[in-house]
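[audit] Reproducing an earlier prediction to check determinism. Same input, same settings, fresh worker. If the tokens differ from the archived copy the diff job will pick it up downstream; this log only records the rerun itself.
[audit] input (74 residues):
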Amino acid sequence: MSSKDKVSKPAYLVIDCRFDYEYQGGHINNAINITDPEVMKDFFLKDRATIERLMQTVVIFHCEFSQKRGPAMY
């Protein structure tokens, strides 16, 4: 396999949708704590360069049981 055939490791971003006190109690390394939909919108739609960069990024929305807050923030 040549170097051009290798799949590069994708960039990823973990958005921790838990409450601030839950995040402060422990979180995934490098996770970003965002709990407000308006802050989320501003973070992802800041400008064209941000949008283009994030289009190449695997985004993971994390919450306690991944049943309500994570899917709602998505």
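[audit] rerun output stored. Observation attached for the diff report: Residues 3-73 form a domain with the Oxidized Rhodanese; domain 1 fold (CATH 3.40.250.10).
[audit] end
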